[in-house]
Amino acid sequence: MNEKISTSHSATAPKKEQVASMFDKISGTYDFLNHFMSLGIDILWRKRAIAELKSIKPRLMLDVATGTGDFAFEAIKILNPEKVIGVDISEGMLEVARKKINDRNLHPVFSVQMGDSEGLHFDDNHFDAVTVAFGVRNYENLEKGIKDMYRVLKPGGKIVILEFSKPRKFPVKQGYNFYFNYVTPFFGKAFSKDASAYTYLPESVAAFPDGDTFNAMLTKVGFKNAKDIRLTFGICAIYTGTK
Questions:
Q1: Is 71 helix (H, G, I), strand (E, B) or coil?
Q2: What is the Rg, in whole angstroms, of the alpha carbon atoms belonging to the chain?
Q3: Residues in CB range of 108: below 8 A, 6 or more apart
Q4: Residue 111: how many CB atoms within 10 A of its CB?
Q5: What is the pLDDT of residue 142?
Q6: pLDDT tens, 58-78?
Q7: Rounded to whole angstroms, how far apart are CA atoms 96 and 92?
Q8: C-alpha to C-alpha distance for 167 and 83, rounded to whole angstroms
Q9: Helix (H, G, I), strand (E, B) or coil at 2
Q10: What is the mean pLDDT of the chain?
Q11: CA angle, corner 236, sides to 153 and 134, nearest 5?
Q12: In whole angstroms, what is the distance from residue 220 CA to residue 222 CA?
């Protein structure tokens, strides 16, 4: 998971620095492009992923790679936790999240801060649930990031990861590849300050070890009952595991 990112940022910089720079540049249009290019399906994916936590009724949650906070806002609406902390390496994305927190008057419940997924500044066994939506494929060291999320999760706690995956079957596979490789970069260039971010998107999805490979990684670091739930013909998947 150490592929280089084709952005205007220095190609010699560590992946996490490149990712932070890229997301800083696209933060202003990120929400719009997400909903526009997924035809709004990303909203349904988030709701379905959050539903995986209903049974444990988490009170304290950590949302890693929180971005503009969409997953956390949806979790607050559905799960009504006491507190959600969001961390991200992009200050630009966090600025958007803070504005949304202000607009919704959610300061008592939701706070965000700069944070590295591979070195979370929280105590061991601290959170009831840890979530990541469309973020794990951006980790510089994927296994290290998963280990740290496992560390801060309470025994009996649950991780829920929502991530793009690779459809296997014709004709969805071919249509998906065309859309991601040609349509997504086109609209990304039209609406975003950093067109290369939307070239990086299909590259990062292609490089991500999805399905059974990722489940095996979750199991390796200690998660029990690691499994994936495929959504929308395999375009996206929910991964879950318990500590």
A1: helix
A2: 17
A3: none
A4: 16
A5: 95
A6: 999 999 999 999 999 999 999
A7: 7
A8: 35
A9: coil
A10: 85
A11: 50
A12: 5
The number of angstroms, rounded, from the C-alpha of 7 to the middle of its chain's C-alpha atoms is: 20
Side-chain half-sphere exposure of 118, counting CA atoms within 13 A: 11
Q: Residues 6 or more apart from 103 whose CB is under 8 A from it?
A: none
pLDDT tens readout for residues 97-130: 999 999 999 999 999 999 998 899 999 999 999 9
Q: Which candidate, 50, 77, 59, places its Cα nearest to that of 131? A: 50
Q: Who contacts 80 (Cβ-Cβ below 8 Å, separation ≥6)?
A: none
Element containing residue 216 per DSSP (H, E): helix 212-221
Q: How many CB atoms lie within 10 A of CB 115?
A: 20
Task: Please give the model's pTM, rounded to 2 decimal places.
Answer: 0.86
- The Cα diameter of the chain in Å comes to 48
Mean of pLDDT values over 9-14: 50
Confidence of residue 143 (pLDDT cuts 50, 70, 90): very high
Q: What is the pLDDT of residue 36?
A: 58
Contact partners, residue 146, CB within 8 Å, separation at least 6: 136, 217, 218, 221
Kind of pairing between the strands at 127-133 and 153-164: parallel
pLDDT tens, position by position, 162-207: 998 887 777 767 776 766 666 666 766 666 666 665 667 778 888 9
Phi-psi region of 115 (alpha: psi -120 to 50; beta: other; left: phi over 0): beta
Closest to 99 measured CA to CA, from 18, 27, 23, 191:
27
User: What are the phi and psi torsion angles at 58 (to 5°)?
Assistant: -65, 135
The residue whose two tokens read 């990861």 is: 161
Q: Which amino acid would we find at residue 195? A: A
